[in-house]
């Protein structure tokens, strides 16, 4: 399945079916992130139940500490 993630087309295995699984696949589980799916910001509590489909547009913002 092809997803548009942060403006780039990314081939993701069909076994990835939720936002939570997508974050895990990308190595972002446990990190503080904001996810927008098809122009809708998802609360963290929605990640497990939010399905992803071929062609979805996903924006992922991570937070980096520093000074």
Automatic annotation (TrEMBL):
Q: Which CDD domains does this entry report, sorted A to Z?
A: Ubl_ThiS
Q: Which Pfam families match?
A: ThiS
Reading the lineage from the top rank, the first entry is: Bacteria
**InterPro entries, per the entry:** Beta-grasp_dom_sf, Mopterin_synth/thiamin_S_b, Thi_S, ThiS/MoaD-like
Report the leader peptide range. none
NCBIfam families associated with the record: thiS (TIGR01683)
User: Mind telling me what this protein is named?
Assistant: Sulfur carrier protein ThiS
Protein source organism: Ectobacillus funiculus
């Amino acid at each position: 399945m092809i997803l548009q993630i942060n403006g780039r087309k990314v081939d993701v295995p069909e076994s990835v079916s939720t936002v939570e699984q997508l974050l895990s696949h990308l190595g972002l589980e446990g990190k503080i992130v904001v996810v927008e799916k098809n122009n809708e910001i998802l609360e963290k509590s929605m990640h497990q139940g939010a399905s992803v489909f071929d062609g979805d547009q996903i924006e992922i913002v991570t937070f980096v500490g520093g000074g």
